[in-house]
Amino acid sequence: MAGNLIPSTGPQSLEPHQDHALQPGGGFDMAPPDTSDGINWGRYISALKRYRWFMLMVVLLGTGIGVGITRFIDPEYVARSTLWLASAPGKSGPVASHELVGGNAWLELLRSFAVIDTVVLKQSLFVQPNSIADSAAFRGFSLGRMFRNWKFKLIVDKDGKNWDLATTDGSIIDHGAVGDSIGRKVGFRWAPTKRQLGRDRTIKFEVISPREASSDLLARFSASMAQESNFLRLSLRDIDPGRAAEVLNAIDSQFVGLAADLKKKQIAELSIILKSQLDTVSRQLEAAEDALKNFQIRAITQPGQELAISGGSQQTGVQATGIYIQQKMNLDQVQKDRETIEEVLGRLKTGESTVDAF
After folding, report:
1. What is the pTM of this model?
2. Is the N or the C terminus of the chain less surrounded, counting Cβ atoms within 10 Å?
3. Portion of the chain with pLDDT greater than 90, in percent
4. What residues have CB less than 8 Å from 267, skipping those under 6 apart?
5. Distances (CA, A) of 240 to 19, 245, 252
């Protein structure tokens, strides 16, 4: 046809249209899942290779942070000790004593300022050096009646011959030669040796009141005692392990000494009471002996003698026998009590045993 602008290229084959089958879940055909058994280690190894630098950076950063924190935080140590408390003896015999203290009373005594204040003064816990290495320089440090609690620093020259005591802001308070008393103007009683101070050294420390030091010690000290137990368990926390053990031993010694003093006072008071009881029993014994003699005089003869008793006197003889037996029993009991009390007083004087043993 002359008007046909599109040349004919001959017959063309057309492909039939194919529809994709839908799966039961509504989706198209997917690649079949990997049904092989075991762990795909290649996938994990590939991930490690890909992120190795990132993981290495995280590990190094965490290690650096941990090391840095340990330089700013002092480790804390705990010292522990156990005390055994004797049980109260059973009460037997005419003499019996009460237990000195018991249960929670031991814990109250242990945490009392009678124990803690003494330990603070003996161990000089009211002076606190900034560095544990400087603790040896404060051996024998004590305070006068009037003192100044503040932050100080002691500067020792390069030759180790002279020192300057100043506040942390640099104000000089006292100065002198090594071996002289340091800080007399602020109430210190401190004369360290040349070996303790060394040379070319600055020692920073803080002085607080003894009662404040006692409160700090109580905050780090703990004591417990299980119910129906004779074991008293103590523990003390401190950044210096040597000082923790030394202070805890001092608490143990002070507590045992104070308990022994209280026990001695109790024994002394009981001795006075027993002496009074002995005097009372002695008077009762004398009265019983006098009553027995008067009875024997009135009865003329003691029961048991083979004497004929007339019929009219039979009732009187029975009454006399009963009175005599009762008086004899009372006399024996009073004599036994007196012997027991005299034995207790004898042991107390020689120190062989305590009143609690009876």
Report:
1. 0.61
2. N
3. 34
4. 348, 354, 355
5. 84, 9, 18
